[in-house]
Automatic annotation (TrEMBL):
Keywords: Membrane, Transmembrane, Transmembrane helix
Chain intervals for the UniProt region annotation (Disordered): 1-34
TM region(s), chain numbering: 66-94, 100-122
Domain spans labelled DUF58: 265-353
One Pfam assignment: DUF58
Top-level taxonomy: Bacteria, Bacillati, Actinomycetota, Actinomycetes, Micrococcales
Protein known as: DUF58 domain-containing protein
Length: 455
């Protein structure tokens, strides 16, 4: 068979006598007209979705109003009471559907227990309750006592009541007997203070309910009262034997145009203050000469205290590090030196020794806030005044290389000392590439070691 071929189309001559091959033009496609059915379906879908959203929103608002209206009743039912109520409903349903009389008796018993418990939540008392802690601030290990005074301020005798008082992580329960009008009843309780913490006592509440705990109605009578358990501190010598010095008037190597320590003369430049012109030298040399000064400053101490859990081998080591920071900080505040103390979650107040110790009582272990000690030191101190002395406090799990890396965050004229809390170890001082690292094994060793520190 022979294949037939279409006759070739002659090429049109182009300008200049050259020929070019012509390409056929594609016909233009007409714009697609949207279907009216699709438009109607999309509009219907939007209407349905909008209606469902409005229905859900209105249903949520209605349920919120219903629950808000029923809150005084539903709040009385304890979790155990909800379980008993659900069990009664399920038992009645099984008895109705399957005709099991036994489940009917079970449902009736559970429902009767709830009905009997209702009688125990009625009653009203009018008390004046006062909570006091003595003292409000103690050192870890010292004894602290609390007192709760209940006064019947009603015009008729009160009925016996059960009162609960949360103290730290525990709850103390007291029974308030029948009180005549104006009569008082007080209860004494001990507050555990063996660990540094902020212990919250209160609020005191009266509890009415049945012995099974199905229903429970509470009335709050007081606010919370805080007891600060301060860390154990060591008394240091004033100014830590020269470590934190008052540098008022001490000359630095920084040259400035306005200070009190004269350094040299230089030629006048536009913008220099005329009060710094040295007129005698200017008259002798024939050109204006101005004074230069060496900068003087007061010391600025910055304590960088890491609370990262990975930096400490034990909880005792964490507490020892806080005692180190608190001991140094309290003495520096007493000396009147400017100081800033930072941790991962909060800066510590340095206004007074008491406020500083209160903030150290709030410190807790953290995890994952920063990748390493250097990042923490950089982020925590970037908004603080340039320090003249930096103390970095951590645990035995902080490598010495991390102390060296954190030192690079600060200027060359900044003195840096690292403190490692290593519970039970021998206290010592070491030099690591010019960095002073102080290891403290017990807080009682801190005064002796600080006298030997020479940055």
């Amino acid at each position: 068979m022979t294949r037939s071929t279409a006759p070739e189309r002659p090429a049109a001559p182009s300008r200049g006598g050259m020929t070019s091959t012509a390409t056929p033009e594609r016909p233009e496609t007409a714009p697609r007209v949207p279907s009216q059915t699709a438009i109607a379906l999309r509009g219907l879908w939007r209407s349905i979705v909008g209606g469902l959203r409005n229905a859900v929103r209105l249903s949520g608002q209605a349920l919120g109003r219903v629950f808000g209206f029923a809150a005084p009743v539903t709040s009385v039912i304890s979790p155990l009471g909800w379980i008993v109520l659900a069990g009664a409903v399920v038992a009645f349903a099984l008895s109705r559907v399957f005709g099991w009389i036994e489940f009917g008796f079970v449902g009736a018993t559970l429902a009767a227990a709830l009905l009997v418990a209702v009688a125990f939540v009625f009653g009203r008392a009018n008390f004046s309750v006062h909570i006091e802690l003595n003292p409000h601030r103690v050192v870890a290990g010292e004894r602290a006592l609390g007192r709760m005074l209940v006064t019947n301020i009603a015009a008729k005798p009160s009925i016996p009541s059960r009162m609960e008082l949360p103290v730290g992580g525990a709850v103390a329960e007291f029974v308030v007997p029948v009180l005549a009008p104006g009569a008082e009843h007080d209860e004494l309780f001990a507050v555990p203070t063996h660990r540094r913490a902020v212990i919250v006592a209160g609020p005191a509440i009266t509890v009415r309910g049945d012995q099974l705990g199905l229903l429970r109605r509470t009335v709050k009578w007081t606010d919370e009262v805080e007891l600060f358990v301060h860390p154990v501190t060591a008394r240091l010598a004033p100014s830590a034997s020269g470590l934190v010095r008052d540098l008022e008037g001490e000359v630095t190597k920084t040259i400035t145009n306005d200070d009190i320590s004269f350094h040299a003369l230089r030629s006048y430049e536009p913008g220099d203050a005329l009060r710094n012109v040295h007129w005698r030298t200017s008259a002798r040399t024939g050109q204006l000469m101005v004074r230069q000064f060496e900068e003087t400053r007061r010391s600025q101490l910055t304590i960088v205290h890491t609370t990262d859990r990975d930096a400490y081998a034990s909880e005792d080591e964490f507490e020892l590090a806080i005692s180190i920071t608190a001991s140094i900080g309290v003495q520096v505040v007493r000396d009147g030196t400017r100081m800033s103390i930072v941790s991962e979650r909060m800066p510590l107040s340095t206004a007074t020794p008491t406020s500083l110790l209160d903030d150290t009582s709030r410190l807790v272990e953290t995890s994952g806030d920063h990748a390493n000690l250097r990042d923490f030191a950089r982020d925590a101190t970037k908004r603080l005044p340039p320090p003249s002395v930096v103390m970095i406090v951590g645990g035995s799990q902080v490598p010495l290389a991390d102390f060296r890396a954190a030192e690079t965050v600060f200027g060359l004229d900044t003195q840096t000392i690292g403190f490692r809390a290593e519970f039970g170890a021998a206290s010592r001082i070491a030099k690591v590439s010019g960095l002073t690292v102080v290891t403290i094994g017990a807080i009682g060793d801190l005064p002796r070691v600080m006298r030997r520190v020479r940055p």
